[in-house]
From TrEMBL:
<dbReference type="GO" id="GO:0002100">
    <property type="term" value="P:tRNA wobble adenosine to inosine editing"/>
</dbReference>
<feature type="signal peptide">
    <location>
        <begin position="1"/>
        <end position="20"/>
    </location>
</feature>
<protein>
    <recommendedName>
        <fullName>CMP/dCMP-type deaminase domain-containing protein</fullName>
    </recommendedName>
</protein>
<dbReference type="InterPro" id="IPR002125">
    <property type="entry name" value="CMP_dCMP_dom"/>
</dbReference>
<dbReference type="InterPro" id="IPR016193">
    <property type="entry name" value="Cytidine_deaminase-like"/>
</dbReference>
<keyword id="KW-0732">Signal</keyword>
<feature type="domain" description="CMP/dCMP-type deaminase">
    <location>
        <begin position="53"/>
        <end position="177"/>
    </location>
</feature>
<dbReference type="GO" id="GO:0052717">
    <property type="term" value="F:tRNA-specific adenosine-34 deaminase activity"/>
</dbReference>
<dbReference type="Pfam" id="PF00383">
    <property type="entry name" value="dCMP_cyt_deam_1"/>
</dbReference>
Amino acid sequence: MRILTSLGVIAAAVTTLSSASSITITTTTAKSPSPAFGADGSFNPCRAISMDDQVALDECYMQLALDHVMIHNPSFPFGALIVDHTTNEISCYGANSNRKNKLLHGETTAFWNCTELYPSPTHDDLNDPGLNWSHQTLYTTGEPCPACASQSIYRGVGRVVWGSSIPDINRSGRQQLMIDMDDVIISAHMGGYQIDHRVPDVVGGVLQDKCDHAFWCAFSIYRDDAYYQSMLARDLGDYIEDHKRRFPCVTVPFVIH
């Protein structure tokens, strides 16, 4: 198992992964260019995957989201990626930016980046956004917290795909609001208590082991005596031992083989 499988390729090819438009590679010798390269030279390894193979696409894009955050914020590996699932093109990236602003979760950063890259042509993002958000899939290494889940609904994305669950992130040692995304979606209502059907489809547990590994190692500093006492009181000692065995940690940033 390897978290940064495409990191070497991406790191060599780009100077920044802050937006899809920045991912460029110039090639002049290839007679039969890879499908991963767009006509403009942009690089997207997931282009080579058939759009009929949704499982493979979800795993590929989740890997890119994880690679991105392991470059930009490995100590808080909440990475996000927004993809137009009707064209198989990357719209933008995001990574947890809590050192700049504690509220900038990975998903929030991705939404902000997309809005900056694709502004409303009429300066009215509420009614005339620059992207067709119903065509967008949000990939995020961690299940969205209630705030980010709400943003996904308000932003109007068509799909949300996440890696590690909120309970697993919490069991890794980090504070979490223990409300899963499905509960947030159920709470969405239009005026007059009408059920809001304009909510995203949700797929969870994509590349779960890789995402769990990243969170388990990144959040080891939060596993103090109080953490162990609380976990043992809930009969979760086996969970701890299992993760120690399956997810060995080295100094972050790290590569898992």
